[in-house]
Write a sequence for this structure.
DNA sequence: GACTGCCTCTACATCGATGTAAAGCACTCA
DNA sequence: TGAGTGCTTTACATCGATGTAGAGGCAGTC
């Protein structure tokens, strides 16, 4: 066992990891030549390259990244700030962003903001900010009024529907259209008493909640079904317990309901729990559609219909935008809208899994009206 | 809006962020004095301190962390390497570790290994290794035979049951006792045909699977229930689909079963799905216990009984061990065993949530026999 | 044969912070 | 008065890499 680690030991026995200077001395060349070899500079005589490479492995050389970062003024790190990893949607998004970044040689630092305004501001200006080359932020606490906070001097990509028109690139989805499509789907199934689960208490019409509620109302209007405020069920935060409690209270209050459109999957799963607990059959008595299409929903009983926002596309686009800014792209800020689909499963009576509708993606200036 | 950002603008207009030298010049002091103020060195005349602080804010000074890292030979970053964030157990663990580290001024860099041996080795020796001061690794691909790979010259904490006796601190749980307790609980409910879901195909008896299977067998032996190899249901990886498929196949084969002990919650949720799909009532026909006690299980229908491994304690202990090594603790390597509990819910006929048994934690030398 | 241009390599300055050693100063005590 | 002490500040070297400018050698061109 000791033998297998021999080379490394040589280095560690010196107390101090080998530097380029050590390697240079051993190979009989200059430090810069070692640097050139390490960085793959092409114009090096093969003989020199071999000498250096031998010294490199003999000494078990590992680059001191702090020194390199200091010199080149880049760290190769990017920040991804999300509310909480415990929420499956964000865990899956983080997974996708990490993999996407990885494939371009970037490393992701995850910040959990808890959806708190102060923590989100800290992401944009705290001391840790200096560690990374750019930021992908999914705000929940910040809103339109904080636009000034987004005037930063590093590449920034915003996710979600909380802030529009900020001076930054933005990746989002067509919430109104997607919510309209999901609601229309329920209407087409013949449902007329469709509860909508998830707005804030004093529906402020901002963020995802406002947009999704708009879509819901548009679908009702198109189908000539009157809007009943009694079917709007506030629920925050968008966790299962809130979904379960809020819908439970509605059901216990005796309001007749034949479908539920939940603004995210956690709420939908909570709703499913509340329905089961009361002996309500899904989908026979109440049909249910969620939003986000997290892995979970495929294993609920019944499996849950949901709106898929295009997670991989979002991750890919966000990283691509950041990379392009890091590379010096100074063009106008853009808003990329990812493609969304309504996926039908058992909770709306579908067998297996079917894509009911597709809301195409698009790209517009970041300050275009919503 | 522009006015609110005035100070920052002053700095950015110079093209280049302010350095300590700039601040020193403005305040009329030496660079080192600025450094002393920034770092809270106590012996500074109040008048000097004020001058420096004024210059600091006027220039919007932000420390260049790369330079500091280079000088002090520390980054304040630690690596947490887990298989996948999409797995709720690891997402929740990452959440807990990030928060714990945060409270001690450490920043967490998450690596996803996919459970692959090469990626786990890369965590221990790849180029990104140089970025962080220490590593918390939850191995899945590496095993006993790779002990040499753990002989590293930086603080390392291992998690899980894949590797024992390596030259590193180790945080784990008493898998055998916990699995025994979970199985005993099912036996006490009167179940006799208890399927165990999750071993590898050629039960290699290593890692969590082997230990949990041992616990299962011990419980059967204690209760004088014969071990039936036909009830051992291989399932890998430990995802829902494997749980659903494997248990589904067993059920379809006609093997009588009145309980299932799943080696993790994902498998259990998959199992639940398979049972529902076949019209089997849980818990009346088949009782079900999972392992990990992720958030999910509280919202399944029925809610799922599970073994809680003490996630927060594990996160806390892992970070504490790493910090202590970073602070120079050179004592012998330890193995900390976290407290585990069997939590009963509806899937075993409990109302609400009850703790059925507690397997106490302990601490032993890292090379103690398992 | 002088010139140009390319390849290969080196010396040195530089990125922005912190550690060290010592200097300057005020004050106390003998 | 001179030595001793402790607080405050400074100059300078240093961490380990990369950018720049240019030296030296060799080949090809006219």
């Amino acid at each position: 066992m000791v033998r297998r680690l021999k080379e490394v030991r040589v280095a560690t026995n010196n107390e101090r990891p080998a530097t380029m200077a050590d390697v240079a001395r051993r190979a009989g060349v200059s430090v810069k030549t070692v640097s050139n070899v390490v960085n793959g500079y092409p114009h090096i005589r093969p003989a020199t390259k071999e000498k250096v490479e031998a010294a490199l492995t003999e000494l078990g050389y590992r680059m001191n990244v702090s020194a390199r970062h200091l010199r080149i003024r880049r760290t190769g790190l990017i920040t991804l700030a999300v509310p909480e990893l415990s929420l499956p949607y964000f865990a899956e998004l983080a997974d996708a962003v990490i993999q996407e970044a990885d494939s371009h040689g970037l490393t992701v630092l995850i910040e959990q903001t808890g959806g708190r305004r102060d923590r989100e501001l800290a992401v944009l200006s705290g001391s840790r900010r200096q560690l990374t080359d750019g930021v992908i932020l999914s705000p929940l606490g910040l809103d339109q009024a904080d636009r000034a906070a987004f005037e930063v001097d590093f590449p920034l990509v915003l996710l979600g529907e909380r802030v529009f028109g900020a001076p930054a690139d933005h990746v989002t989805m067509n919430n109104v259209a997607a919510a309209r499509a999901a609601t229309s789907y329920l209407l087409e199934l013949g449902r007329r008493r469709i509860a909508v689960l998830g707005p804030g208490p004093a529906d402020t019409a901002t963020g995802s909640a406002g947009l999704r509620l708009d879509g819901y109302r548009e679908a009702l209007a198109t189908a000539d079904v009157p809007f009943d405020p009694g079917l709007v069920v506030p629920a925050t935060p968008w966790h299962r317990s809130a979904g379960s409690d809020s819908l439970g209270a509605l059901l216990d209050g005796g309001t007749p309901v034949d479908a539920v459109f939940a603004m995210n999957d956690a709420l939908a799963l909570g709703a499913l729990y509340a329905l089961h607990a009361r002996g309500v059959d899904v989908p026979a008595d109440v049909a249910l559609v969620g939003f986000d299409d997290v892995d979970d929903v495929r294993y609920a009983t019944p499996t849950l219909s949901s709106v898929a926002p295009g997670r991989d596309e979002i991750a890919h686009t966000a990283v691509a935008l950041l990379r392009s800014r890091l590379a010096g792209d100074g063009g106008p800020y853009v808003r990329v809208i990812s493609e969304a689909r309504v996926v039908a499963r058992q909770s709306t009576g579908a067998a297996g899994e079917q894509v009911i509708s597709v809301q195409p993606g698009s790209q517009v200036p970041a300050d275009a009206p919503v």
Remarks:
- Chain A has a mean pLDDT of 91.
